[in-house]
Prior knowledge:
Layout: H1 5-30, H2 36-53, H3 58-69, H4 72-75, H5 86-106, H6 109-127, H7 134-155, H8 169-185, H9 193-202, H10 209-229, H11 240-246, H12 259-291, H13 293-312, H14 318-321, H15 323-347, H16 354-379
Amino acid sequence: MTLNDYQRDLIRQFLPAALSGLITWLIILTIGATPLSRSIGLALVIVGVTLALRRFGALLSVIGGLALAFSPAFWSQTSGGTSTPATIVIALIVATTGGALVVALSKRPYIALMFALIAFGVIFFSQIGQARSLRLNLLTNAWLIYLLINAVLLTNPRPDEPPPARLNAQYRAGILLLLAIGVINDPVAVVFVPTVALGLAFSKTRLRWWYWGLLWGIAALGIYGMATEYFRADLWGVSAIQAEAQMLPYLIADGWNDPHRWVGLFNLIVTQFTVFGLILGIIGMARLYRWYPVLGSVMLTAYASFFVFGLLYFGRDRAILLLPLLIIQVIWMTYAVYVFGQWLEKTLAARATPIGRIWIKRAVSTLYLLLPLFLLLQHLGI
């Protein structure tokens, strides 16, 4: 069977993501001793992150995905224990399958979106209530970041890239659906609302009034959830020292004023990706904002939103809830390595042969590979 150009491009686009997902699944299933359903869900997170990194090259996208997979915060979701509730999986399957059927039969993605939201909500609330599944939260966050990056780059390309395109209905529906599922599962997903609103505004796509109404309705639901589950009036004013000593799972105002909280968040990044990861992230952030200012602004908004949440929240699961921040950190790190490889290739263009330039880029990628290998060896106790 001969593949056409579209099929070959599709394989080139998704093969690295499938590879990183497979590697992650095998390692956390065997070495991490993770239940099958949970390991599949975690692997799908890495697939989404790798797809978000794909434009930086196949090898770098795989390495970046594995760097996240082997970070201590992500790895803490492995090992034994109860897996994700089966009802959540059923709700996701019904919502996705039903929405796909509506699109296929009626060609109306907005009706599919409404059907998916209603189906997921009915099954979720009637059978579970508020599960606050950390892994479902992570899964929706990873794929939401992927869709936002693609949407922004599709509608705001650089001058030397193909002309801007209109944000199609699939992107609009997918962004809203993932955000809604995230908020229904855990209201902390409302932290993404400013980023989503900014990304949609930058897309220069005219959206119907009811679409914005749904977005603000999801935001209102998330704010209500945050107020009831992450906020207590009698604890809002306690000192950061007391809140940290007791690991209070609530938002505490003094977290903003305590310098140790700021240092602690940067230390969290160092703990996950070493000090080199922190430096690479700073470089990648600056370069991304320089070359893709719209995308840079959207990513900075998401990062700042979760950074503030990390300052104010004192629960034991803070590092896990901040995994969206770590995903953006990986994006910046990978972009920094990509930019360095491009700069090195251009600098040595006059001296090196075409094959030599290819090997130079591979050498840079190989150095980046040391990071996930180092993180994995830590989990192996080596």
